[in-house]
Amino acid sequence: MMTVLLATAIHGAVPADLSAAGGFGAITLYHYLFVAMVLFALGVIGFLARRNLIIMFLSTELMFQGAGLALIAFSKFHLNHTGEVFVIFVLTVAAAEAALALALVVLLFRQRETLDAEQWSALEG
Amino acid sequence: MECGVRRAASRQSAERRLNAILNPLMLYVGLAAGAVGVLMALPRRRINPQIIGTLIAAASLGGVLLHLALRGAEAGQMPNINFYLFAGIAVLAGLRVVTHQRPVYSAMFFILTVLSSAAMYVMLGAEFMAFALIIIYAGAILITYLFVIMLATQAPTEDAVEALNPYDAEARDPLLATMLGFLLLAGLTGMLAKGVDSIQPAASIAAQQEVAANLPGKVIRDLSARGVFDGLERPAEETLHEHWDVHAGLLTLDVTDTDALRISLKNERIAELMPFAQFNMATLDVGDPVFVHLPESVQASNIDGVGWALIAEHPMSLEVAGVILLMAMLGAVVLARKQSQIGETEKAAAASKFLHVEGHES
User: Fold this and answer.
1) Which residues in chain A have Cβ-Cβ distances shorter than 8 Å to B329?
2) Beta bridge partners of B253
3) Share of chain B above pLDDT 90, in %
4) Any chain B CB within 8 A of the CB of A79?
5) How many of the other CB atoms lie within 10 Å of CB of B326?
6) Cβ pair B264, B230 in contact under 8 A
7) Hey, what domains does chain A have and what are their CATH numbers?
8) What is the CATH number of domain B2-194?
């Protein structure tokens, strides 16, 4: 199913649409940026509102997704591969952050048997 | 004077595009409805209108997207269904990531978000990053999350197997968080609606061939596999750029063997690359130049471009990224190691046991 969808995505590919930047049916940069912004804002809301440490870190990953989508879209619309290279580094940072943050979460959980961020308010400056 | 006229004209066209792409009032109404939906969808202890909230948020955010799509339909063009499909899946799954009460489901919905953004990457022509995203995010990072979720969960008790943790069942300051998040979103999208009036993509053929010009080995291998060099000189990798007009996409090669060239021109796929040679076949002699159009496949692919940008333009960052990953690995090992206190006598006992086994084997 996924491969079929990917195949249709390739055939309905953007490059033809890109040339018609003023065309209404075309997918413009704005569309991609809008989706990226919504993902980023949802990540912010999740980080602020949830109390579970793991979900808070998952929300930061959601913000990374938004940033990555915006970078790829800009890179495509400027025909400059540096944006894609930047996404490689975003992935690197995300992987490093996941490893460290989750190690910290496991450490904290061992001490108090809870993942509630409020329980750790003693850590605040 | 002329400059002012031009600026006014460009502002006018920007306004037209703004009205065409995002009607700001519709946008803000949609975002406000989305905020109400997210607020309702966030977990709460007493009354929990999660499903209604999700529906409202999805409907309003989808409405903004659909608004974009309908504008396209009004103009008589079919909207790109795939984009709206994957964008919708990404936003809905992202919504569930931040609102679902069970962490495992949140992680699963995040995988869905990752897959649909990978599909959007493919639509943008960034195949390499799409597959890297699936492999690294869905394959590695999310598995780490799932492991940690399983490690850091209290075992369920007999009488309440399905019980939620209190900190999963209730959000912290949902109103403030939603307001802040959607104010951010309104600010960003408002800027988007006003912002840059046109971002035109550059001419793509020359850009792609400039990358290909950095990869002479690939070009020569590809052309030789097609049999283009039968009867024509085969340039060395180092001198290829002397034969290559990057902007026109033409190679200039000398004839070395007219008979071999005549035979290879019988092949239509080669002949269409050299219309000039085919036309002048009768008069061509050894040493005469022939123009060869470069076929599509010679142009640099997405992976060529990313690889070239990574290695040639940002080698230092690549090294730094490697160091960061190494440090993160070391840090995670040091942090997660169980610190156990072993007494001196236990250490001595373990050592003597080890020595005893060693001695026995020898």
Assistant:
1) 99
2) B290
3) 15
4) yes
5) 11
6) yes
7) 28-113 (1.10.287.3510)
8) 1.20.120
